[in-house]
Write a structure and sequence with these properties.
The complex is a heterotrimer.
Chain A lengths: L1 E13 L5 E13 L3 E5 L6 H8 L7 E10 L2 E2 L5 H7 L5 E4 L3 H4 L6 H12 L5 H12 L6 H5 L8 H12 L6 E5 L7 H16 L5 E6 L2 H7 L2 E6 L2 E7 H6 L4 H8 L51 E3 L2 E3 L6
Parallel strand pairs in A: 3-8, 3-9, 6-7, 7-8
Antiparallel strand pairs in A: 1-2, 1-4, 4-5, 9-10, 10-12, 11-12
Helix pairs in contact in A: 4-5, 7-8
Chain B lengths: L5 H26 L8 H9 L5 H14 L5 E2 L2 E2 L12 H13 L14 H37 L1 H16 L2 H15 L19 H38 L2 H8 L4 H25 L1 H4 L1 H6 L5 H10 L3 H29 L1 H9 L4
Antiparallel strand pairs in B: 1-2
Chain C lengths: L7 E10 L6 E11 L4 E5 L6 H8 L7 E6 L2 E2 L3 H7 E4 L13 H7 L10 H14 L4 H4 L9 H15 L3 E5 L7 H18 L2 E6 L2 H7 L2 E6 L2 E6 L1 H6 L4 H8 L11
Parallel strand pairs in C: 3-8, 3-9, 6-7, 7-8
Antiparallel strand pairs in C: 1-2, 1-4, 4-5, 9-10
Classes of the chains: A alpha/beta, B mainly alpha, C alpha/beta.
Chain lengths: ~325, ~350, ~260
């Protein structure tokens, strides 16, 4: 059953000087219930803009250019912010932000922030019922429930904060969860604890479908079923996790894999290599392949022929020369 | 011993600092008027002794010296040296006396309104000042902050009108704004009285007539303080609000689909914390701060009293007033220090963790 | 084990915070030495004391017990110390003033030097430093910190190091806020500093994988103690401490099961 459909979604920003920044272009994918999609790319590739679009949350200066987003057959486009707030956010699509420390209101206790979320979406629920619900839910997270709920964000460790944020975002059992770099501010051990917690929530069917955004491809290998590689606002490759990690076909995916670390013994010769150059300026229209400027195997015609997604080796690749 | 009670320790720590500040202020307050070459009695005598016989003048002077504690007294009699001259008290003795009197609540005798006690003069003037300032400051602070928060949240036309207006008003010096109000509303339009706290013909009492007259006289001075304060607060709150709006926790609240009213609530609370300091300062300087407004509108409050005492070199009065102002500023700051410590968990957590180094 | 010519030599070096019952031992009885020209990584999870140790090397904290010597002497005057020991931090935006252009702030860096080079020399050194971190000088001319990306700003911090050419660089988690590509870049620059300027580098990180590539030696820290030290291959191939094993296991490797 298809739960989430995105068809040719394009989004743009208006800068203060009236310039249009085409942050996301022509993104299409579908997700079945229970699927986990990983999205990877450099910072500034449009990942975070895409998140807003996927929630139907178009707060100026962000505007949809084209395309459609559907959750369980219901479109999120052209709806009022209040309608999206009431009927979509937290219930249908919920978001786990990065940097939990800044995402939590510093002057409110965790239980009060969480209670605000329940109160915003459930009518006729009294304080007591809210707090019982909170306790039951936080008991699943493997933390000292009472201590965490009664603390201000500053009194918690980074791991506790991130787990609280995940707990708050999934309080109302959302159909879809979008996690935007939920672990990139954490050390490796805490990262593992947080990922384990997410898996635990999936197992308990608090939610079942997730988009996981990160720049760490090795992490996606363990988290995602399918992976999309994003570059300059476009998906450049979309396939299963195995395909993308072990057999990348797009030159950008290959380059990105080359920049990843590996601490496996005796791998020192495989030093990570950076990709030279910078992504293109998205304020100007680009006719050719967006990666052509930095592509090690670019041909002259790449700079002015538009590249479309095509199927190579069972996955979608946006490069006509990819093998 | 107090390690287990960081809050109490915090209060005590702060309290000790404020006490120290207060002690220094009291010492400065005592010695400043004495730095001049003349003692106050000389100045008064210079004014009043004209036409008196030298005998009468000397008796008068000795009475003054006794009254102000400048000579040694035993059993009501002035102690004299061999030549019959009164024995002067040293500065230290005067200081000890002054502190003793302060503890008894006796701030001395006014020169100008002799033999009225300083405390009495202050008590007569202070209700007018508090009545003028306290409601004005509280209302101005609340109005300014609500408007500023709304301007930050709504932006658009509301902000485009409010922000320049607030900026303009708050930048006006209070005496200019006061005089403009006075000129337009009482001189040109003749809608409001130009001076005084109530009509001359009425004797202050709790009658309807008096209250009506007082309210009528109240409006212009009220407006002159209120507008400037509200404008300044609105600007501060607006920029704090805009800053808070850009923070991740507000974005997260929107992503979670919290109600708009709740998000504004969060915004207001967090942006208000720094504004509290402004409120405390206004309340603390309230006693002395209305000086100019009271002058312009000839309002019978403490500001006017201070003005006349300064003009007349009435040292006991000046000392009394400065002591009062110092105390109220320190008290207000102390309260806000404690309040912010409890309202902002970040400060509270800082107490527990200690200061890093 | 202590070498007379070590850049840093710590002997039972300890740093405590707080007093009484709430005392916290951030750095606990560490003994180590760092030799001239090597890259040493201090690796550990959050709260292991690695940043405190780095700050002690910078002279920002003094040991409460034991000694920490820089060139055989304790750090007394930080101003002089900073002529030779410089740092890059995690968040480059908080290291630069938002209200001044980046170039003028790079120029200010010369203020710490004893003898200021000539105006022309300063401009030349800034240009060269920018080129060393792959930024063309005209790209940042007249720009303010908020106009650059996190990756570019992190490179500005490194440009400052290329300008000042200190003897020692303390790099405190310089890669934890940047994406994988910029991270690879920063590793390259650290190697360049070591090879071209013979700089001694202390690299503080939570990622043992990252430390593995650049370091000559690794110190693994846990609860304020250095639980293991050795060459990268020694530490990763045959870890002796359980904490090292844990750190290695927690990295999501592509060829190995991670969450069971």
């Amino acid at each position: 059953m298809t739960l989430f459909e995105v068809e040719q979604l394009s989004l743009h920003y208006l800068t203060r000087f009236g310039e249009k920044i085409h942050a996301v272009t022509d993104v299409s994918f579908t997700m079945k219930k229970g699927e986990i999609l990983g999205i990877a790319g450099e910072s500034g590739c449009g990942k975070s803009t895409l998140v807003n679009g996927l929630m139907g949350l178009f707060i100026p200066p962000l505007y949809p250019t084209d395309g459609i987003v559907k959750v369980a057959g219901e479109s999120l486009m052209n709806r009022t912010p209040e309608d999206i707030r009431k009927n979509v956010l937290s219930r249908k699509v919920s978001m786990i932000p990065q940097g939990a420390f800044n995402a939590l209101n510093p002057t409110r206790k965790i239980k009060d922030i969480a209670a605000d979320v329940i109160a915003a979406h459930m009518k006729d629920i009294d304080r007591k019922a809210i707090h019982t619900r909170l306790r039951e839910r936080f008991d699943l997270f493997g933390m000292n429930t009472e201590k965490v709920l009664n603390s201000y964000p500053i009194q918690l460790t980074a791991g506790e904060r991130q787990r609280s944020v995940i707990g708050i975002s999934t309080l109302l059992n959302p159909r879809m969860v979008i996690a935007d770099e939920p672990t990139s501010a954490l050390d490796v051990s805490t990262q593992k604890i947080v990922i384990k917690m997410i898996f635990n929530l999936l197992e308990k069917e608090i939610f079942s479908t997730m988009i996981f955004i990160t720049h760490e491809l090795p992490l996606l290998r363990h988290v995602a079923d399918t992976i999309a590689i994003m570059y300059a606002g476009e998906f450049v490759e979309l396939g299963t996790a195995e395909q993308i990690i072990f057999d990348p076909r797009h030159p950008y995916t290959k380059a990105l894999m080359g920049a990843m670390l590996s601490a496996e013994a005796g791998q020192k010769q495989k030093k990570p290599t950076a990709i030279e150059g910078a992504p293109p300026n998205l304020a100007k229209p680009i006719t050719g392949c967006r990666f052509a400027e930095r592509c090690p195997v670019a041909k002259p015609q790449c700079h002015h022929t538009k590249q479309n997604m095509r199927i190579i080796a069972d996955r979608q690749v946006r490069c006509e020369y990819a093998q | 011993m107090l390690k287990q009670y960081p809050s109490l320790r915090y209060i005590l720590q702060r309290g000790v600092w404020y006490l120290l500040t207060f002690a220094v202020a009291v010492i400065i307050n005592f010695f400043l008027p004495r730095l001049g070459s003349h003692n106050p009695v000389d100045i008064i005598m210079g004014k009043f002794s004209a036409g008196m016989s030298s005998e009468a003048a000397r008796a008068k002077e000795e009475a003054y010296l006794k009254e102000f504690g400048l000579v040694k007294v035993r059993n009501g009699e002035i102690l004299r040296d061999a030549a019959g001259k009164p024995l002067k008290t040293s500065n230290t003795e005067q200081f000890v006396n002054y502190i003793k009197m302060c503890f008894k609540g006796d701030l001395g005798t006014s020169f100008q309104k002799y033999p009225k006690k300083v405390l009495q003069v202050i008590i007569e003037a202070i209700p007018w000042t508090i009545a003028l300032q306290l409601p004005t400051i509280l209302l101005g602070w609340i109005t300014g902050n609500v408007l500023g928060a709304l301007a930050a949240y709504r932006r658009g036309a509301f902000d485009r009108v409010l922000f320049p207006a607030a900026l303009f008003i708050s930048a006006l010096p209070s005496f200019v704004f006061g005089m403009l109000l006075l000129y337009y509303f009482s001189v040109v339009m003749n809608w409001f009285p130009a001076m005084g706290g109530y009509a001359d013909a009425i004797v202050p009492s709790l009658s309807f007539e008096f209250i009506q007259s007082a309210a009528y006289h109240y409006l212009l001075p009220f407006l002159s303080i209120f507008c400037i304060l509200a404008g300044g607060q609105a600007i501060g709150m607006r920029s704090m609000g805009i800053y808070e709006l850009g923070t991740d926790y507000i974005k997260y609240a929107k992503w979670l689909g919290l109600k708009e009213s709740r998000i504004i609530g969060w915004l207001f609370r967090n942006a208000m914390l720094p504004q509290l300091t402004g409120l405390a300062l206004s309340l603390g300087t309230m006693i002395g701060g209305a000086l100019i407004t009271e002058m312009i509108f000839s309002y019978p409050g403490l500001g006017m009293a201070i003005l006349t005492t300064i003009q007349n070199n009435d040292y006991p009065m000046i000392q009394g007033c400065t002591l009062l102002i110092t105390t109220s500023v320190l008290l207000a700051n102390f309260t806000v220090d404690i309040l912010i410590g409890f309202l902002d968990p970040r400060v509270k957590a800082g107490l527990r963790i200690g200061k890093g180094n | 084990m202590l070498n007379k010519n070590s850049i840093f030599a710590a002997n039972n070096c300890t740093r405590e915070f707080g007093t009484g019952k709430k005392i916290v031992r951030a750095v606990d009885n560490t003994t180590f030495s760092i030799e001239s020209g090597e890259i040493v990584s201090i690796v550990g999870g959050s709260g292991c004391g690695k940043s405190v140790l780095a700050k002690m090397m910078l002279g920002l904290y003094k040991p409460t017990d034991g000694t920490l010597l820089y060139n055989n002497a304790p750090v007394t005057n930080t101003k002089i110390h900073w002529r030779e020991v410089q740092a890059v931090f995690q968040d480059p935006f908080s290291c630069f003033n938002q209200f001044f252009t980046i170039r003028s702030q790079l120029k200010d860096a010369f203020g710490i030097l004893q003898e200021k080079p000539s105006h022309k020399e300063i401009e030349k050194r800034i240009d060269n430093a920018l080129l060393a971190v792959n930024i063309k000088p005209h790209e940042i001319s007249g720009k303010y910190p908020f106009e650059l990306s996190g990756g570019q700003m992190q490179r500005m911090l490194l440009a400052r190091i290329f300008i000042l050419r200190p003897k020692v660089l303390i790099a405190d988690e310089p890669t934890s806020m940047v994406d994988a590509c910029v991270r690879a870049n920063i590793l390259d620059y650290l190697m360049k500093l070591k090879e071209e300027l013979k700089m001694t580098i202390v690299f503080v990180t939570h990622d043992i994988g990252l430390a593995y590539y650049v370091s000559d030696r690794l110190f693994i820290m846990h609860n304020g103690r250095i639980v293991e030290q050795g060459t990268p291959d020694e530490v990763t191939l045959s870890p002796r401490s359980e904490h090292t094993v844990r750190l290695l296991e927690d990295i999501p490797e592509i060829h190995r099961a991670w969450i069971c």
